[in-house]
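Researcher: Next entry in the queue.
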Amino acid sequence: MRQLVTVAAAVVAVVSVSAQTPQRFTLEETTIAQIESALRDGSLTCHTLVEQYLKRIDAYDKNGPALNAIVQTNTDALKTADDLDRRFRQSGPVGAGHCVPVIVKDNYETFDMPTTAGSLALKGMMTGKDAFVVKRLRDAGAVMIAKSNMAEFAFSPVETVNSILPGYTRNPYDTSRVTAGSSGGSAAAAAANFAAFALASDTGDSIRGPASHQALVGLRSTMGLVSRAGVVPLSMAADITGAVTRTVADTAAVLQVIAGEDPNDPVTAASRGHVTANYAAALRRDGLRGARLGVLHQAYDTPTLDREVDAVFRGAIGELRDLGAEVIDPVAVDGFDALRRAQGGGCNQFKHDLNRYLTALGDKAPVHSLDEIVKSRRFHPSIQARLESAQASDDVPGQSPGCKSRDEFREKLRDAVLALMNSAQLDALIYPTWSNPPRLIGDLNTPGGDNNQVFAPSTGFPAITVPMGYTRGDTLPAGLQFFGRAWDEATLLRLAYAYEQATHHRRPPALR
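Model: Structure for this entry, 512 residues:
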């Protein structure tokens, strides 16, 4: 089992956190490395740490600014913390994830909390096991302290609302604004310092969009690098599991634990030989020196592009150049518009994937098909049309004409993106993670700004977002996205880390 211990140790060296001299521990904005250092030097116990996070959730989630990011806290969290403290006294940490508190998106299975995907149709569902990613983290010593709110069945990329928890999840930087979706609860919780980091998932946008809206780091990894087993599916053709964090170093540390092959998710067989031995080794402050980056206007430059987001991005380009990168502006994927026009039909495989998932759960699932969910009416009214459309579809991946056309488009797009990057000798393509700032909650007229649905999901290539500044009077976060080649997470981490360490654009929200 790959442990977080070696990664955290490397990160400690990177950020110069001393394990020798006890220092006053501060919960807000703490990192995995700082938690591990405080546990080692005796200035912190696991019980104290978990208790502090639970108190913070109590103060800010349903009280105070009422972020509404948490579905439920784990009633066993303090018991688990006490057990970890006992084991630490006896034989040291169980791994370098020892007592790292984690928020879990509500589409990940956990043996000790229900998994509902935000839907009343799945209320109280206990599968009796952990998703692969959750188990990897627990084995490394992490504590699952709460389940986070999400867009129901992960449908919406622009807001976080569902039928399992009344009300919207609110953006901690401006509680009148959305969090994006579908991992909005995870992002709001991580931004508000409810845990060390939060698990999320990304089918078209849902790691990177919420991370951008909440001044976080979010990595959508290469398809096949991380298992999706034990996660309620939206589309297995594009679903990715991962995390939202407050630092690039923490993203690298989490990836080290969760990456790798899982027989319960056959797509991960492709990761064999591609898991980097030490992602933390890529974290270099000079990592942008000599890098070649291409500005991909096709990913963001639309008639509704917000002028302030564009201005912040232009400033980021200047920062990248000051840090030694060569930025080529513009670059373009050859024949991109023609490729999109040639794609025939669509492929709605939600019913196919969800029915397989529910059937495999047997009696542990309260419903066993999408048809049962539709007939139950136990869902938020905003998703009724989408559920009914999915139920009416008989698409089968790899067989239906629309699915075959989609797959052909994706193969051609992969080739075209690689041709661009190879011909221009690019390390990564860059663009704003979202083309517009977070909308007001309930606003369905202002441009949403989601520009993540095509390039990374369709190619299966990795992309990472990192804070690049703020709009609207320096209040609303905006993200910079690096998009790269398959299995090249180390390069993206290097570029993002160098930018993060030089600019330090992230700041915690002013919660009251």
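Model: The radius of gyration is 21 Å.
Researcher: Noted, moving on.
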